[in-house]
Design goal:
The complex is a heterodimer.
Chain A (H helix, E strand, L loop, with lengths): L4 H22 L2 H22 L5 H24 L4 H5 L13 H8 L6 H12 L4 H7 L4 H18 L8 H23 L11 H16 L4 H14 L2 H4 L19 H17 L4 H14 L8 H14 L3 H15 L1 H9 L11 H14 L2 H14 L3 H19 L1
Helix pairs in contact in A: 1-2, 1-3, 2-3, 5-6, 6-8, 6-9, 7-8, 9-10, 9-11, 10-11, 11-13, 11-14, 13-14, 14-15, 15-16, 16-17, 16-18, 17-18, 18-19, 19-20
Chain B lengths: L1 E8 L1 H6 L2 H21 L2 E6 L7 E6 L2 E6 L8 E9 L3 H10 L2 H4 L1 E6 L9
Antiparallel strand pairs in B: 1-5, 1-6, 2-5, 3-4
Classes of the chains: A mainly alpha, B alpha+beta.
């Protein structure tokens, strides 16, 4: 799509508001969602040519409303049910023009009745305003596959009668956690993408940050929302340094810190600092705090590993998970030496969630190398390289193994 | 996570199947493909021509040599593949178990490498 960036940004921002207004007026989330996509498409064709309408939001609502009423009329004619007017009578006349339904929409798209893959796809389309083709492109699947996930999600919403309203107060915290997790997954999908033919995937990090920013504006007091936004900014700040031009991965300690995004770091640090002062602590905030300690170190050697270890201790207590323990082991190695960390890893061997994971083998190999046990480190890297399903990770692990093998032969 | 499901068949056994047996296999394949398409897990797939149509290409000292027949000599040969994207490895093997060829020969389930990677 070659729409001017300003128009595209505006459309993406208005998309959830327009959809919210329509669903409030007509119900029928599935028909409204299709209508909004058509209206967005019409706008991307007409606006750059004819100029912005005076009231872009109103324009989109009018165009989408026309489509949705046409659709509902033809559905009704087909079914030959009662008088059309009953179903088409606006439901909620009280709809305030500045009401922001984005949050309600996010809760709907991230409803636990939908599969994780559907939650992601529907969120990016209905809230993010992306087309099925763009989402398919970013997730490296055919457009038909992505379109099917979206339509299945919409069918499920219809079949289960999930209402378009904020979840009741007692459920809200749990439901918000699902929303944040979906945004985190979108971010991660884009962040792990490396350069080369898959560059469009990195747009997902920008989209995840944009949507999390919207949630943060709507729920500024929520510490975990702030924490997630900070975590994304502080992680994404390192993106220019984490891959070489050939797509290979650069480990944190070897990254060129001068290419980190200072502005993103400044914003992320400010967010996490204020949230740690004002809000109850949570896992995203702790992960953001850890990322902040890394980002604030001028050199890898300057990293305050004691601080990081303390934060991992807290995180492990708050949200115990073998992956957290594995990351904590890296901090233990930096503070107390590789042997203490290796002992900690032994406790993870019996954990089914992690025992066969490449990352356990990779971290162990790294610690064994530090401890001077080259033979064991070499076979650890080789084992990790066999287990990973990521091309750049395998390249990285193979080159670590090769480095050890060459130095042994000398 | 994407998985490729490699479909193995013994062409000699396939030739001995009755019309009814062959139709049964086709119907089962159609059914599972439709189900996977509807669930949004289907990414793609193709069936392959009989192994007798295979050419194997080797380049030695810069010289290509083309021979007739498959690379691996075996009674069972690759007959097709499909690519699915699913939430768990268990789901991928569950799909493979539903494929009719698994009843007669075997399905091989292998994860597909991803282009992205985590920071180390």
């Amino acid at each position: 799509m070659s729409t001017a960036p300003a128009v595209e940004d505006l459309l993406r921002e208005l998309a959830p508001q327009v959809l919210g207004a329509l669903v409030r007026r007509y119900g029928h989330f599935d028909a409204c969602e299709d209508a909004v996509q058509e209206a967005l498409l019409a706008a991307t064709v007409q606006w750059p040519d004819q100029g912005l309408p005076q009231n872009p939001r109103g324009w989109l609502i009018t165009v989408a409303s026309r489509r949705v009423t046409d659709q509902l009329r033809s559905d009704q004619a087909r079914r030959r049910r009662e008088d059309v007017t009953a179903a088409l009578a606006p439901r909620d006349e009280s709809e305030a023009s500045d009401r922001d339904d984005t949050l309600t929409l996010l809760f709907l798209c991230c409803h636990p009745a939908l599969s994780p893959a559907s939650q992601l796809a529907l969120t990016l389309r209905a809230v993010g305003g992306l087309t099925s083709a763009q989402i398919a492109n970013a997730f490296l699947v055919p457009e038909a596959t992505m379109a099917q996930r979206i339509s299945r999600a919409k069918q499920r919403i219809k079949a289960t009668g999930i209402p378009f309203e904020m979840p009741p107060e007692p459920e809200r915290a749990d439901r918000l956690r699902v929303v944040l997790h979906v945004l985190y997954l979108v971010f991660n999908e884009g962040y792990t993408a490396t350069s080369g033919p898959h560059l469009h995937r990195t747009e997902l990090t920008g989209e995840a940050i944009r949507l999390t920013r919207v949630v943060h504006q709507l729920l500024p007091e929520d510490g975990e929302v702030t924490g997630l936004l900070a975590l994304m900014l502080l992680t994404d700040a390192r993106r220019p340094a984490r891959t070489r031009t050939d797509g290979s991965l650069v480990p944190l300690e070897e990254q060129d810190r001068s290419s980190w995004d200072r502005e993103a770091i400044r914003e992320g640090v400010a967010l996490i600092t204020s949230s740690l002062e004002h809000a109850p602590i949570g896992p995203y905030q702790l992960q953001a705090a850890i990322a902040a300690v890394h980002d604030e170190a001028t050199t890898a050697a300057d990293t305050d590993w004691r601080e990081i270890l303390g934060l991992y201790d807290l995180l492990e207590r708050l949200a115990p998970n073998p992956m957290v323990t594995l990351n904590r082991a890296v901090a233990v190695a930096m503070v107390r030496g590789p042997n203490a960390a290796l002992e900690l890893l032994d406790t993870l061997d019996s954990d089914d969630r992690l025992a066969d994971h490449y990352r356990l083998a990779a971290v162990r190999a790294h610690l064994l190398e530090k401890a001077g046990d080259r033979d064991a480190a070499l076979s650890g890297y080789q084992e990790a390289a066999r287990r990973t399903t990521s091309i750049p990770e395998r390249r990285y692990l193979e080159s670590r193994a090769a480095r050890l093998r060459d130095s042994q032969e000398r | 996570m994407k998985y490729i499901l490699l479909i193995y068949q013994n062409p000699a056994t396939w030739e001995t199947f009755s019309e009814e047996e062959r139709n049964r296999v086709m119907v089962d394949v159609d059914e599972i493909m439709q189900e996977l398409t509807q669930s949004g897990e289907w990414v793609g797939g193709e069936g392959l021509a009989d192994p007798s149509n295979t050419k194997t290409v080797r380049v030695r000292d810069g010289v290509p040599a083309v021979t007739d027949g498959p690379f691996v000599e075996s009674k069972e040969q690759l007959a097709g593949y499909c690519i699915v994207e699913c939430e768990t490895p268990e789901r991928a093997t569950e799909i493979a178990a539903r494929w009719p060829d698994a009843r007669y020969w075997a399905m091989e389930v292998r994860p597909i490498m991803e282009p992205g990677g985590e920071e180390m």
